[in-house]
Design brief:
alpha/beta, 8-stranded mixed β-sheet, 24% strand, globular, binds flavin-adenine dinucleotide
Length: 371
Amino acid sequence: MSTNTFAPQSLQTHFNNHGHLKRGDSVTVVGAGAFGGWTALHLLRRGVKVTLIDAWGAGNSRSSSGDETRVIRSTYGANEFYFDLNVRAMELWKEHERAWNRQVFFNTGVLWLCHNEKCSIVDDSIPYSKKHKMEYEYLDKQDLAKRFRIVNADDIHHGWFDPYGGYLKARESTQLVLDTFVKEGGTFVNSRVMPGSGDVPGGDTIIYACGSWLGRMFPEELGDRITCSKQEVYYFGVPAANAAEYDNFPVWVDADDKDHYYGIPGNANRGFKVGVDRRGKPFDPTNGERLPEPEVLLHARGFLEHRFPGLKNAPLVESRVCPYENSVDGNFIFERSKEMRNVWFLGGGSGHGFKHGPALAELVCNVLMGV
Ligand SMILES: Cc1cc2nc3c(=O)[nH]c(=O)nc-3n(C[C@H](O)[C@H](O)[C@H](O)COP(=O)(O)OP(=O)(O)OC[C@H]3O[C@@H](n4cnc5c(N)ncnc54)[C@H](O)[C@@H]3O)c2cc1C
C-alpha cells in the first residue's frame, strides 16, 4: 500500500479520449492481474472480442495482485482524482461481490495514526470526504488510547478513523474476475508473451498490463519509467488470549512521513499483517527469490514492538515478498505506444493500484471507446 500523494494532473493527461475501438473489434490484453483482468472484463461487456493472456495465471504468486489482501481507502491527500476513482471502485467492488455471492470487501474502516497536528495525507482529503458524505472521525490521543487499547499512542498526536475503507481479498478476487471473464465469453490463454523476440499476439488492439514486468518488456519506451522494487509484508501471530482484539482491529496506517508502516489485521486468519511502504531493492519479478531481507524484518519488528507492545516477540507466521511496479511519480500509466500504434501500456500501480482496478478499467474502456 502506498500512501504517497501524487500530482493530480499527470494521470489525467494520459487519458485523452481516443475512441478508436468499436463493438466487434478484437483486443488482446496481456496480464491478468488487477489492471488487465478488470480491463478485459469491462471491454468484453462492451461488445469487444477479448483474449486475455497470462504467463502464470491470475493472481499468481509472482504478481503484485497475488497477495492475500490489499487496503482500500479513498484518502489521497489533496489528490481528488484518486479519491473519486476509489469512490467509484468501491461501488464496483460492492456490485461485483453481490454478483459473486462472495465477500471480497471487508469494511473494517481505516485508522490513520497521525504523528503531528498537521497530517496532510488525511487533512487534505477531508473536503472530498465531505463532498462524498464519507466523513472521517477525529480521535484525540485519549479517545484513541481508550478505543484502540492495543495501540501505543504515546507518540501519536491524534487519529482519524475512516469508516468507509477496509481491505479487499486480492488473490481471490483477481481469480474471480478471470472466472467471470471466461463465464461471460472471454478467451483466456495461459502463455508468456515475449514482444522483444518478435512474438506479437493477434488483435486489432493489444494492451500490455504486465505489472512489474512492463519496464523490462519495453525497455526503450518504458525501461526507466516502470521499475520493480522488492516489497515485504509480514504476518505475525497474535496472542491466543485476546486474538479477537487484534483480529477485529481496523486497517491502520502509521502516517509518520518516513516508513509508512501499515497493516491489515485479521485478514483471512493469516495473522496481524504488517507492511512497509518504503521502496525496497530493485527486484527481478520472474527469478527473484521471495525471502524477506533480515534487516527489513528487524526494522518491522522494532516498529511493531513499539506501536503494538502486546505483539513484542510475536512469531512471524508467514511473510510475502511482492513486487511494486513503480512509475516515476507514483501515478498510473495508460498510454499508446509511440512505435506500435495498436499497442497500449497500462501499469505503474506503484503500490496503490489494486483497489482501483475496476474503476481504472472502466476509465480505460471509456478512453478507448470514446465514451
Ligand atoms: C506489498 C504490496 C502491497 C500493496 N498494497 C496495496 C494496497 O494496500 N492497496 C492497493 O490498492 N494496492 C496495493 N498494492 C499495489 C497493487 O497490488 C498493484 O498496484 C496491483 O496489484 C497491480 O496490478 P497489475 O495488474 O498491474 O500487476 P500484476 O498483478 O503483477 O499483474 C501482471 C500480470 O502480468 C503477467 N505477465 C507478466 N509478464 C507477462 C508476459 N510476458 N506474458 C504474459 N503475462 C505476463 C503476470 O503473470 C501477472 O499476472 C500493493 C503492492 C504490493 C507489492
